[in-house]
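Need a sequence for this fold. Nothing fancy.
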């Protein structure tokens, strides 16, 4: 009797972040904010101001300036910063950190900030190489027995046919290239190029015109079939950051120092960075590289101290500097490390260099649409009554509290055998999990019972 088992569908593992629904700033071609677009809702003035900042960055007119996003908690400051990054494109470096991350027992504060600044500056390096490029129409790999283990087979050579729209060539490659073909899982229909000098293999994607079958569970990058001859002179573009180059140069220096018995250090010496800057400037002047200024986003900027602010002020005026975007929810407060009070806990000399964007609390209709978008993103089916109850909690308590209740309410609904979350599920979740105000009231009610 044949054995037949029903295979249960695999549950997809997804990491849903707080701002994974943000696709951009949601602006039209004239820079005006749409009420709902790209995952953004409301905050029209702030989004339009951020759109102007994006245009200034693209035109290279933000040198020596920064941006400060201020507003109460839960008003979309981080969402706007993420929207700015999305508008700048995938090739633009975007580094996000919290103001408290600079306090480390292993690195100095200025070193942490300097590494973050260098990570936010990209270098687009152009290299011309002779390559064989085309779509794979035939591939055959020959195997031989391993010299030390006769039960294991290793590739000895490969024969591969590459085609473009205008040319076709069959190549016979050695064991090193054959091993790369196996490692990259190159198969018929893939578009690849092979370095004619080093034998390096790079898999570009799948030629969609060659796809005869499509599967529900598959992932590949769809690309066009190359034109021209198979062997050509090709411009290869590598995008690195200044920090990547710093680490590479520092590794060479560390290896040499280790041979001499000198202790290794976790911090990158200033002379290494100076050498990297000189090499980058030389490549830019020769037309072999291009600088890509990125964005350094520091949330909770009030957590920085006076030394960090002084360092950032000087770094903003340097020749190689990213766009600095700060965010804070503090009003007039002390600058950390001093007894001086200042707006947002930031020194006035740095505030003078910042374009300040303000956010405001969300209205009820905006909270409703944000909750609807988050429910779709997290795949939580809500009834209209449940959405209204969550909106009410978002207005009376906070938007973050309402968002956090959606997942517990979904679990409660599933336990009750319902496919959709109802208002009763939301109220039950609110009984289990209280907000900050209710927690404070509870502490005051039982103040004598708590340890001090």
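Here you go.
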């Amino acid at each position: 009797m044949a054995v037949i088992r029903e295979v249960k569908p695999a549950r997809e593992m997804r990491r849903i972040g707080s701002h994974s629904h943000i696709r951009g700033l949601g602006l039209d071609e004239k820079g005006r904010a749409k009420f709902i677009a790209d995952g953004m809702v409301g905050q029209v003035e702030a989004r339009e101001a951020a759109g102007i900042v994006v245009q200034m960055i693209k035109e290279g007119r933000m040198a020596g300036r920064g941006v400060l996003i201020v507003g109460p908690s839960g008003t979309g400051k981080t969402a706007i910063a993420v929207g700015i990054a999305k508008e700048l494109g995938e090739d633009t470096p975007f580094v996000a950190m919290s103001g408290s991350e600079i306090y480390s027992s292993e690195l100095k504060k200025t070193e942490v900030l300097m590494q973050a600044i260098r990570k936010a500056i990209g270098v687009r390096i152009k290299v011309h190489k002779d390559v064989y490029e085309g779509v794979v129409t035939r591939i055959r790999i020959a195997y031989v027995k391993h010299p030390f283990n006769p039960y294991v087979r290793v590739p000895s050579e490969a024969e591969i046919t590459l085609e473009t729209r205008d040319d076709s060539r069959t190549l016979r490659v050695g064991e090193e290239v054959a091993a790369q073909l196996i490692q990259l899982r190159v198969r018929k229909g893939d578009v690849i190029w092979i370095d004619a000098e080093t034998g390096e293999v790079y898999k570009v994607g799948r030629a969609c015109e060659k796809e005869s079958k499509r599967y529900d569970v598959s992932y590949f990058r769809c690309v066009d079939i190359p034109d021209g001859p198979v062997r050509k002179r090709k411009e290869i573009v590598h995008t690195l950051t200044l920090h990547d180059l710093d680490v590479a140069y520092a590794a060479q220096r560390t290896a040499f120092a280790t041979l001499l018995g000198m202790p290794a250090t976790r911090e990158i010496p200033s002379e290494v960075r100076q050498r990297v800057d000189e090499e980058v400037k030389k490549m830019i002047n020769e037309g072999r590289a291009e600088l890509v200024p990125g964005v350094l986003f520091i949330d909770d900027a009030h957590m920085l101290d006076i030394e960090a602010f002084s360092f950032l002020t000087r770094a903003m005026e340097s020749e190689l500097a990213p766009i600095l975007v700060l965010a804070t929810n503090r009003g007039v407060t002390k600058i950390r490390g001093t007894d001086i009070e200042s707006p947002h806990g930031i020194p006035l000399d740095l505030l003078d260099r910042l374009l300040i964007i303000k956010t405001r609390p969300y209205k009820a209709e905006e909270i409703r649409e944000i909750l609807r978008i988050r429910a779709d993103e997290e795949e939580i089916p809500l009834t209209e009554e449940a959405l209204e109850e969550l909106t009410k909690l978002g207005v009376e308590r906070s938007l973050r509290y309402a968002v956090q209740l959606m997942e517990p309410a979904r679990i409660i609904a599933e336990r009750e055998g319902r496919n959709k979350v109802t208002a009763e599920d939301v109220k039950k979740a609110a009984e289990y999990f209280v907000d900050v105000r209710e927690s404070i009231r509870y502490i005051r009610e039982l103040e004598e019972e708590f340890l001090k």
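For context: Residues 1-15, 210-219 have pLDDT under 50 and may be disordered.
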